[in-house]
Amino acid sequence: MSESPLHVLVIGAGTGGMALAHALHKNKVSVAVYERDRTRADFLQGHRVGINPEGTRALRACLPDELFELFLATCASPMERGNLYTERLGEVLSLEFPLDRDALNSEKSVSRVTLKQVLRSDADDFLHFGKYCTHYEHTPDGRVVAHFEDGTSAIGDVLVAADGTRSRVRQQYLPHAALDDAEMVAVAGKVPLDDRVRDLLPPHMTRGMSIILAPGGRFFISHTMEFPWGDDLRLKNGIGSRDAELISAWPGLQFDNTRDHMIWGLAVPPHLAPDGLAEAEGAQIIEMARRMSPGWSPALHRLIEMSDPSTCGASTRQSTSVPVEAWETTNVTLLGDAIHTMTPGRGVGANTALKDAQLLAHQLVGAHRGERPLLEAIHDYETQMIDYGFTAVTESLKFYGKDNPLNRPVLGRAALTLVRGGARLINNVPPLKRGVTNRLLASRGAHTPDERPARTT
Ligand SMILES: Cc1cc2nc3c(=O)[nH]c(=O)nc-3n(C[C@H](O)[C@H](O)[C@H](O)COP(=O)(O)OP(=O)(O)OC[C@H]3O[C@@H](n4cnc5c(N)ncnc54)[C@H](O)[C@@H]3O)c2cc1C
């Protein structure tokens, strides 16, 4: 039995909801998570998620030590390079990232499936599957009741909507908080990372992330995902760490996405998408991806053709939240995509959900300990979250989506020429290149050696 006077209901066992729940549980705040998936292994498709230093530090703060170690042990190898190419695979810019040995200060690549599996571990005490939340209501004494599709309900002192972009709780609580169409249509696939791929592509491209900004607002991205284990599931190089023990005890390896691969995505404004894309599958998507990239390098088309059809998917509606003004605080609150869905432009959706989880947990733990009134704690969280969350939404849309200047019909061409010219200049002037690399890392939350705080963990 918990001694907590506060009982928190979390709707959704995704990135943000599970980080919050672990943080509350480890601080002895009573929590229950309700997830619509029927089992821990439902919905195993997924893309790569980049967890930046800020996101890693949030995970460190939220997770029990053992689970955080498991997260680190199951990440792909660090990204060595960030590249910008033309659609003919001419190098425009290639930044080399320092391989920071401080786990809290480096960029991580993790499969979304893996992250989900890790976060859903060690949670049997508080995680409930098969619970699709339909609505909530308040009791006369101000507590909150969540109702589920199976006819059951749960009562708590706080309800946290962590139920993603199409949040049912948000639709009831903040019906004016709308989603807008980001006006990008995307296809994606995965290719086993082997010598065929390494021989096909420029060497820098198989050592990290590569972006192609091409005429018409076309956007291509690829990531290499190399894991610490081989096909036999044994560590390639694990002497001197606990990783082998952690990984061998971890059930997540039986799932997809845990073998070395290259993941690619191609996005275009809707008027450039082939008819029938929404219904396309497998080999049809590969064929359509070729049509969405006319005149591109044959090596890129070959890469797309080498994709495993079963990993290919299309997304014909990508949403972005319309920022809303602050609302009156109650004991219902929201985090992550449920309140600030953003395009993948800046690669910070999950990182922002983790930041929310860390901050909200801190506030709720304070309220639980009697350090401050509950509504004041939630209000402080919401004030900060609304500010940084919607800033991230706006910034992401400028880089990917309808607010991207490169997507404009005529001006877009001129803007692309300017971007490429500036990037080529940076590529050829080493001090400029170092400056850009450092600014990029700092914007993702990395500390330079002088700024690094003493480790307190
Ligand atoms: C292609 C792509 C690439 C991305 N890359 C990155 C990246 O590199 N870096 C980054 O930071 N972010 C990235 N993101 C964004 C990131 O994946 C999301 O922002 C993040 O997962 C949001 O976490 P969340 O906890 O808010 O929601 P989710 O992780 O979506 O979790 C929501 C959970 O709620 C459950 N749920 C939904 N409705 C209900 C209901 N009614 N009742 C009960 N349960 C419910 C769902 O099943 C799910 O488990 C990317 C997104 C995409 C699409």
Topology summary:
Blueprint lengths: L6 E5 L3 H12 L3 E5 L13 E4 L1 H10 L2 H9 L7 E5 L5 E6 L11 E4 H8 L7 E2 L4 E6 L5 E5 L4 E4 L1 E4 L6 H6 L5 E3 L3 E8 L2 H6 L7 E7 L3 E8 L17 H6 L12 E8 L13 H10 L6 H8 L7 E3 L3 E3 L10 E3 L2 H4 L8 H20 L5 H26 L11 H18 L1 H14 L14
Parallel strand pairs: 1-2, 1-11, 2-7, 4-14, 11-19
Antiparallel strand pairs: 3-6, 4-5, 8-9, 9-10, 12-18, 13-16, 13-17, 14-15, 15-16
Bound molecules: flavin-adenine dinucleotide.
Task: Give an overview in words.
This protein is of the alpha/beta class and 457 residues long. It folds into 2 domains: 7-40 and 120-179 and 323-399, FAD/NAD(P)-binding domain (3-Layer(bba) Sandwich), CATH 3.50.50.60; 185-317 and 408-443, no CATH class. Helices cover 34% and strands 20% of the residues. The chain is built from 14 helices and 19 strands. The strands form 5 sheets. A 7-stranded mixed sheet has the order 5-4-14-15-16-13-17, with helices on both faces. A 5-stranded parallel sheet has the order 7-2-1-11-19. The chain has a 3-stranded antiparallel sheet with strand order 8-9-10. The two termini are 28 Å apart. The mean pLDDT is 91. Residues 11-17, 34-37, 47, 49-50, 131-133, 162-164, 168, 336-338, 344, 347-351, 353 line the site of flavin-adenine dinucleotide.
